[in-house]
Amino acid sequence: xxxxxxxxxxxxxWSMHRSLYKGMGYSDYDLERPLIGIANSxxxxxxxxxxxxxxxxxxxxxxxxxxxxxxxxxxxAACDGIAQGHDGMHYILPTRDLxxxxxxxxxxxxxxxxxxxxxxxxxxxxxxxxxxxxxxxxAILVVGGPMEGGCQFDGRASDITSLAEGLGMLKxxxxxxxxxxxxxxxxxxxxxxxxFLGTANTMCCVAEAMGLSLPGSATIPxxxxxxxxxxxxxxxxxxxxxxxxxxxxxxxxxxxxxNAIRLSAALGGSTNVALHLPxxxxxxxxxxxxDLFEELCRSxxxxxxxxxxxxxxxxxxxxxxxxxxxxxEILPLLYADALTVAGRTVAENVAGATIRNPAIIRTRDNPxxxxxxxxxxxxxxxxxxxxxxxxxIVPAMHTFTGPARCFDSEEAADEAIxxxxxxxxEVLVIRYEGPKGGPGMREMFKAMKLIYGRxxxxxxxxxxxxxxxxxxxxxxxxHISPEAAEGGPIAVVADGDVITIDIPNRxxxxxxxxxxxxxxxxxxxRPEPKFKKGYLSLYARLAESADKGAIIRxxxx
Length: 557
Fold this sequence. Notes:
Layout: H1 4-7, H2 15-22, H3 28-31, E1 35-40, H4 52-65, E2 69-74, H5 80-83, H6 92-109, E3 114-119, H7 124-135, E4 139-143, E5 152-153, E6 156-157, H8 161-171, H9 177-186, H10 199-210, H11 225-244, H12 254-267, H13 273-283, H14 290-298, H15 314-320, H16 322-329, H17 346-350, E7 375-379, E8 382-388, E9 399-407, H18 410-418, E10 427-430, H19 445-453, E11 461-464, E12 476-481, E13 498-502, E14 507-510, H20 514-523, H21 534-542
Parallel strand pairs: 1-2, 1-3, 3-4, 9-10, 10-11, 11-12
Antiparallel strand pairs: 5-6, 7-8, 8-12, 9-13, 13-14
Helix pairs in contact: 4-11, 6-7, 7-10, 7-13, 8-9, 8-19, 10-12, 12-13, 12-14, 18-19
């Protein structure tokens, strides 16, 4: 084991350091044990993180039980939901790199021996996995758990996205104001990450599949006592793996990353995994590309369905068997010998798992669909790649052709939808929303939900160089690369140009001759940056394209 803190706490040379700890109440007994960092992203802004202070207390209990000393520090966390539909969403994806950097700085500056990562939501969970891979110290992720489902609305338990759908219904007279206000009160009944399979819960499940969280822990609801018991066990586990010398990159490696991609495909997880897993792999020195994503997703059956693809939510999925049941079912496709923080292999972790509700989790021989939940498209509109989610798109919409309606921002598109200016059969094009052009690659969540609320979800499509929330459904393609701000073909699409989305053949086609596209691109001029100072200005200059995970490269070759 690499007992780093011990080296800076030896008397008498390092007594100053000991004295600083003692100023906070630490004792000689505490300082003789390994110092286990707890990177806690608790705050009272994000409902998914609201319970993390209580979770942290149980982690500390476990650390002390196993012979370690917990050393807690804070980490920023922003709420995607509260940031939706306004300038705040520009800042969400860029927080991923700030959080990873912050954890690296704190752990390295204080020579901590291991780290417990406490988070629940996107982009916090992927940032913590990035930090773990970069540090390559003993690490474990402990999540806060999903929110319970809300009151019944539109044929399923409601969640916070029901408000965006309800707004469209309110505007068209399908519901009245009293019903809408009642929905506001009951859609988010508890703390926790949002109850649907959005990016937050997808990434929590991915972390478990990768092996950096305890088996079965990703989907325990935030309000259940099991959540606290899992936190305590995680505290004991981090001390055990420190003593064994098991570091993050022994888990976050090519085997772990591929297992994570397959698990996400089997769940029909968020398209954002196509941003986050390449970024995590970059930190772990085992880079993956979109071709690998497509290969693994296409060959992985989609066997678990939940909201937004179906009515059940993530707590329902947990009761049905959760991640272990899915991984056991697709075990022949996984690296069964991959190591996990539990000290066991993937195969050993899932040996006792069972499917308890076949209406949510099916067998590999009887999947919801034979191809995985995500698909990577290419074509003259997306020369590098684009990403979509067949698991959230009804089969009849897997091929869609229509005239383009172009918007240079999410706000312009939202306004047009609310004012009833979008016609059935059209393909909405929302551009200049990529990592550089946004900047920050905003989610087109609101536009998709407004389309749904106006009854156009099965009659229109949306393509963008931005991205989507894991809860979006309808017909959509995002992550178009190169993005508009880098002179990608999406920048020169005009109203009325015909676009075809062909998911079965993995193609995104603009019905124009190559000569016309090149002629338009020759006339195109790069727009002025939207942010000329602050972190977003820096991010816009440094961020890679979406097909590279929107990473900020920091390695010197």
